[in-house]
Amino acid sequence: MSLKEKLAQKIPQLREEIKTLVKDHGEKVLSEATVRQAYGGMRGIKCMVWETSLLDPIEGIRFRGYSIPELRQKLPKARGGEEPLPEGIFWLLLTGELPSSKEVKEVTGEWHKREEVPQNTWKILKTLPTDMHPMTQFSIAILSLQPTSEFAKKYNEGIPKTEYWDPMYEDVMNLLAKLPAIAAYIYRRTYKDGKRIRPVKRLDWGANFAHMMGIDNPEYYELMRLYLVLHCDHEGGNVSAHTTHLVGSALSDAFYALSAGMNGLAGPLHGLANQEVLRWIQNLMQKLGGRVPTKEELSKALWDTLNKGQVIPGYGHAVLRRTDPRYTAQREFALKHMPEDQLFKLVSLIYETAPDILKEHGKAKNPWPNVDAHSGVLQWHYGVREYDFYTVLFGVSRSMGVLAQLIWDRALGLAIERPKSVTTEWIKQEVGKM
Ligand code: HAX
After folding, report:
1. Ligand 1 binding pocket includes 314 (Cβ within 6 Å)
2. Which residues are catalytic?
3. What is the pTM assigned to this prediction?
4. Cα angle vertex 241, ends 240, 242, to 5°?
5. Tens of pLDDT, residues 356-396
6. Ligand 1 atom with the shortest distance to the CA of 238
7. 274-381: CATH, from 2.60.120.620, 1.10.230.10, 3.10.310.30, 1.10.10.60
8. Rg of the chain over all Cα atoms, to the nearest angstrom
9. Does ligand 1 come within 6 angstroms of the Cβ of 324?
């Protein structure tokens, strides 16, 4: 059964379950909102549905019920490889089932069939200044594909609501197939010779991405596969996921929705944090004449950052309250492949030092590292030293999760989002009555 057939089989069942759930329990309370939450980024209010993953504050992310260590073991691998293939996690996110190696190969083949990027997108990219941030180029390129949307076309033709998921699936598959080539070209034109490297049919999605960036190192292929799996989804409330979902709820197509989500990922408190980590480390080393700091020098630098009112990038989280398992998975990769790398040693030293300092500082609810504290140093080791590009790598991966959910949004007929906002004046009056 193909991925699309498998999905088509799942949709009616969940639709029925939700219909019954809302009919029988529609008025039950999941969450109430406090004044603090209204001003504090709506933290923790349970008021949206996201099927593909769920975040536990202590355990970290589970994709369709599976933890990261479980998936590193259970998902199909490339021949001779040890890290999971991203195609496999996409299958899991979309269907809730672990795929076989054969099914994963089918997804690879399907994406190869759809990978050709329209000339128009290349032309638009060529007009952009090469000193424009790669995330801006990425978002523009995604938006430039919008005229190819099957969803927009079918919507205009007036297809019934129950069928919206079908053209959305087509758009999502077309987009995911093209993103590595687009991202790789942005890398080549911004930092290298500007020539596009053609995809290779025998390579899987992750390896092909690395190849098109110009890095044909089997160890980097493995890192790319792991990286793309780890960053793919982090439930629905984070900025990139929520934005994609929100924009899609207006029945904007996948291109509008993803481009908007990527603009959110480009923020320094979200996806940009991975480049900020490396910038922070490099600045520190530069001040020390290029050498790795001692623990005392590092402590001082961490305190200086905090005393200036800045955040320690890569530390803290809106939901997590322990070390992010995505950090741990990347650390394991580093321990296996590059234990002597100087920057890795420094990242490890920050891991030993920063949590205690953040605890003493007393503000951050979570003093432990998140995914972004580790990703840059791995890229740096394999020669991807242009850290402005790191968020694009994150974006290619995150697209899998937010787009899988976008298909489900349309399959389940989720409503246009319209929460209620209030003014400070209204809140003052309301609390006065309590
Ligand atoms: N360094 C210093 N202070 C921090 C901090 C850090 N790493 N993390 C949180 N704090 C501060 C907050 O700025 C906040 O201070 P104010 O009360 O003065 O506003 C206070 O601690 C309470 O914040 P919190 O409740 O613990 O955290 P939030 O939910 O508000 O924010 C963030 C979560 C991830 C944005 C935050 O921890 C942060 O800014 N971290 C550094 C940037 C970062 O690593 N971002 C990537 C997160 C993962 C991700 O989304 N990747 O895409």
Report:
1. yes
2. 270, 317, 372
3. 0.95
4. 95
5. 999 999 999 999 999 999 999 999 999 999 989 999 999 99
6. 50
7. 1.10.230.10
8. 22
9. no
